[in-house]
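Need residues for this backbone.
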């Protein structure tokens, strides 16, 4: 089935999304369970997903930047030392 969502912003925007029958059924069931209009629920779920993805990307970039800054400042260690520590910490075998 195809759903059309109209934005509540100053300028309305129609967005048409094609869903598989399985996803449509899950969305309808969730909307019914929550007593929500299916279009409102779909818009809320998409908004949450986009916000989560944006935050996840920002956190990943910050982590990479911190790692690069640590490396540039000399805060690093030998890879073999790290591997040995992890093997001991998690009781992993050495398949050398």
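Answer:
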């Amino acid at each position: 089935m195809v759903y059309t969502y109209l934005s509540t912003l100053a300028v309305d925007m129609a967005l048409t999304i094609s869903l598989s029958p399985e996803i449509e059924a899950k969305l309808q069931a969730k909307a019914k369970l929550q007593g929500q209009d299916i279009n409102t629920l779909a818009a809320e779920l998409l908004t949450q997903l986009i916000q989560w993805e944006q935050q996840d990307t920002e956190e990943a970039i910050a982590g990479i930047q911190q790692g690069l800054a640590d490396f540039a400042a000399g805060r690093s260690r030998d890879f073999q030392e790290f591997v040995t520590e992890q093997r001991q910490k998690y009781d992993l075998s050495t398949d050398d």
